[in-house]
Specification:
21% of the residues lie in helices and 30% in strands. It is of the alpha+beta class.
């Protein structure tokens, strides 16, 4: 399959088994936690269907001008894969193995500006790759140290346009059927800013630890109501 972005030739080929992938560590100790938090709440609330994938630092491939290009976003969501999951081991090639990602995210941890690179020559910059090659509808850049969130949506002219938040400082992602926004609090001993999901009714999608706490509080409230009922019965002289 061949598509064109101006003079750029783009094809979709599986990465050869002997292709050597970069084995670089993540830029920041917080990045895996930020990514895991996004995926966990999707999975626990049934928003991550079996044919979708959400992963971190995983290679998304294309062949640009007959050269393989692999970018590994800090978090990516693919709505549907079309091959068995076990066939997606080392990398993912859109159009060949499933749909293009609906969302790619980069978590800023330095100031090299690579997330904004529109470099066309090989290897292309991240911005050019996500916008012109993959044509991902939502490109999200998050600076966790200060809680700054930028969401770019692929405009009908084929270029990213910065979006504005709603009155709750959240952004509706049509492809996810969810809101995304910045939340401040503690998780995994990290106090700071996080990205969170909200459903169309404004309900926060909870993490596992929050669900456990919610269940504990519900049990404690139920026990308290039972104790109060038993006390009223005793006071009325009708308990055993």
């Amino acid at each position: 399959m061949v598509v064109s972005a101006s003079t750029t030739k783009i094809t979709w080929e599986l990465l050869p088994e002997d292709f050597v992938l970069d084995d670089e560590p993540v830029d920041n100790v917080n990045q895996p936690s930020l990514a895991a938090a996004l995926t966990e709440s999707l999975e626990l609330t049934g928003k991550l269907i079996e044919t979708a994938i959400a992963t971190t630092n995983y290679g998304i491939c294309a062949t640009v001008n007959d050269k393989f290009v692999i970018k590994a976003p800090d978090w990516v969501y693919v709505p549907q894969i079309t091959v068995p999951r076990e066939q997606i081991q080392r990398s993912y090639t859109p159009h060949k193995q499933g749909q293009i990602p609906a969302v790619v995210m980069e978590f800023l941890s330095d100031t090299d500006g690579s997330e904004y690179s529109n470099k066309h020559t090989y290897p292309p910059g991240k911005w050019f790759y996500y916008e012109q090659v993959l044509q991902v509808p939502n490109y999200i850049i998050f600076q966790p140290d200060i809680g700054e969130l930028e969401i770019y949506h692929l405009h009908e002219n084929g270029h990213y346009k910065l979006r504005s938040s709603d009155e709750n400082n959240r952004y509706w992602l049509t492809e996810m059927e969810l809101f995304i926004g910045v939340w401040q609090g503690k998780r995994e001993n990290r106090q700071g800013y996080w990205l969170r999901w909200w459903d169309k009714d404004g309900n926060l999608l909870l993490w596992g630890s929050e669900l456990v706490q919610q269940e504990r509080l519900a049990k404690e409230a139920a026990l308290k109501r039972l104790e109060e009922l038993e006390k009223r019965l005793r006071d009325a002289g009708i308990s055993d």
